[in-house]
Amino acid sequence: MPMSKTAYEGLEAAVLRYNPPRAIWLLDILRQQSGRQHYRHEDSYGPLSIMLFGALNRRRIAPGITVPTNARPLSEKTLAACRTWNEEWLRRDFSQQEIADAMSNFVTIYCRDHAPNDELSEGSPR
Fold first, then answer.
1. Torsion sign (Cα): 87, 51, 33, 110
2. Where along the chain do its domains lie?
3. In sequence order, which residues have a C-beta less than 8 Å from that of residue 46 and are 6 or more positions away?
4. Rounded to an integer, what distance in angstroms lies between the CA atom of residue 49 and that of residue 44?
5. Pairwise pLDDT comparison (117 vs 6), residue with the higher score
6. Quick one: how far is CA 92 from the chain centroid?
């Protein structure tokens, strides 16, 4: 069964709007350790916790220099969507491959939209 629209929106928010770097890390885990993820009923957000409670985003301010950014809290509606995602995860409504595919699409969008611009590229004139 495919992921519901609400669950998909929760995943999208966690990846694209909240903590893309940790999403990339989770995507690596999903791809390299397929079938080894845990299904913990006591965890409200499941694997999304890696993004929701992991290290904060960092913003690039110059070549090779980043600073931590304060991630804006997610809305209650978005957190509810993340909980829905976890409910479906626990029921195994979608496969780990489906999660990885969706996350890969989101990460591709994020990387495309946040590629270094020419002004900050190494070796570019100031």
1. positive
2. 5-115
3. 39, 40, 85, 86, 89, 90
4. 8
5. 6
6. 19
